[in-house]
User: Fold YqgE/AlgH family protein from Mucilaginibacter angelicae.
Amino acid sequence: MLSPIAAAAGHLLISEPFMMDPNFKRSVIILTEYSEDGAMGFILNHQSEYLLGDVLPDVSYSEMPVYEGGPVAKNTLHFIHCAPDRIDGGIEIADGLYWGGDFDQVKHLVSNYLLGPDEIKFFAGYSGWIPQQLDEEIKEDSWIVTNKFDIEALFTLDEQNLWRQVVISLGQRYAHIANFPENPALN
Assistant:
């Protein structure tokens, strides 16, 4: 088994290097919920074609990217942040990392350039698993789970390299897979 760490809210899921599902290919997911009822999270490194101004025209800082959180409920908007001192009501999912909060505060802060993409990330839709589904996928080596990551890295705008950076940060045991080609037939 690739993953010696169990899944939990606040942990990252890193897709195995040859995952062909286009929704999750080379993805890094932050889990926001994990229980016997299932799991939920957001893909951190799949930027959508939309900017925040496309989905919230009343927000003046419209250049912020919106990410594809996953294939479920793509018509919903979610966010994670590291600004609990300015956004009330967020749920702490990892040390210093929060999910959700007062959306009116978020719109005010973003509109007034008081909150930037290095502190907040928006997602259209989410990734979800029914009970036991994620555990089975982890047993099948579809995902590597880690609880060791730099929160600043999650807010990087270099999402194309996030998967590789996170894999390398896992250490020697995993670093070699960071160089695997996306298509094994090209090896």
Q: What stands out?
A: The chain is about 20% helix and 30% strand. The two ends are 23 Å apart (CA to CA). The longest strand covers residues 72-81. The CA atoms of residues 131 and 179 lie 33 Å apart.
